[in-house]
Write a structure and sequence with these properties.
2 domains; 6 strands; alpha/beta; globular; binds iron/sulfur cluster
């Protein structure tokens, strides 16, 4: 903790970074802490409980652009950073990434290659709960499965917290806010809520880090991260690792087209 605080203070003093996106002590869990001064950096914490995906702040307009930024990145935030770099949403030379090695040692990762190496060397955090949940839903007959999702998503009141929490939802104008043409009804209703979630998850095909932040952000506790998790599984099974990660915007001449009637 002190090691990170001191390193951030020195990066700020040397003008190597303008801002550090990290975690501070929360009441229940660590909370995001954006440190721009040495005093603010004194509140930084970073340990195994810091699992929230802070990469979501990297593309916010107050941070993106000219700012040099440091970040304390959880495993899934590192995945998001790799994807954001692939989509040219971040400038590698303006980013200082800190991660935790297994055992809790602080690691400073210099650039994309080191982030990728660290990810390759680090065991993937368990997603057993999500795997079991998907298995349970997959085992339902199609009609029951449709009823399950319709039942859950009919409760959605379209607050878009799931979108706001996602590092990969960075479009300045989301499809749900476009009204010429209007793709998705803006008011909450079972069918259009379903449409919204299908659109959200489709847009994230191959880009989602599986961090679960969308589900954690939902004030109603709707399991929308399970939809994302299922999409991660489908993309891995059908496309492996698509180039640049984006399954919808890449193709290979030998892609299967058996879905075309
Ligand atoms: S869709 Fe959900 S699980 Fe995937 S990156 Fe976004 S917040 Fe994380
Ligand atoms: S966070 Fe929950 S209630 Fe809000 S739009 Fe997403 S699914 Fe609906």
């Amino acid at each position: 903790m002190i090691e990170l605080q001191n390193r951030v203070k020195s990066l700020l003093a040397d003008k190597e970074i303008d801002l550090f996106i990290g975690y501070g002590q929360g009441t229940r869990l660590p909370r995001p802490l954006l440190a721009g001064t040495a005093e603010e950096a004194s509140g930084l914490v970073f340990d195994g409980a810091c699992t929230g995906n802070l990469a979501v702040y990297l593309t916010r307009k107050e941070v993106a652009g000219s700012k040099k930024v440091g970040i304390a990145a959880s495993y899934f935030a590192l995945r998001s950073i790799v994807q954001l770099l692939a989509e040219h949403q971040l400038r590698e030379e303006r980013l200082r990434v800190f991660a935790l090695a297994p055992g809790g040692t602080l690691k400073e990762l210099a650039g994309l290659a080191e982030v990728e190496r660290h990810l390759a060397e680090t065991p993937v955090p368990s997603l057993q709960v999500e795997d079991d949940w998907v298995k349970e839903i997959d085992a339902m007959p199609p009609k029951e499965r449709w009823g399950y999702w319709l039942g859950e998503l009919s409760k959605c009141f379209k607050c878009y917290a799931c979108r706001a929490a996602c590092p990969m939802c960075y479009c300045t104008k989301c499809i749900v806010e476009v009204n010429r043409p209007q793709w998705v009804q803006p008011w909450a209703a079972a069918a259009s809520n379903m449409e919204w979630q299908i659109n959200r998850v489709m847009h994230l095909a191959g880009r989602c880090s599986d961090c679960g932040a969308c589900g954690a952000a939902c004030p109603l506790g709707l399991p929308v991260h399970i939809l994302s998790h299922k999409m991660v599984e489908i993309v891995a099974q059908r496309f492996g690792t698509p180039e640049g990660g984006n399954a919808l915007s890449t193709f290979k001449p030998d892609d299967k087209e058996n879905f075309i009637g």
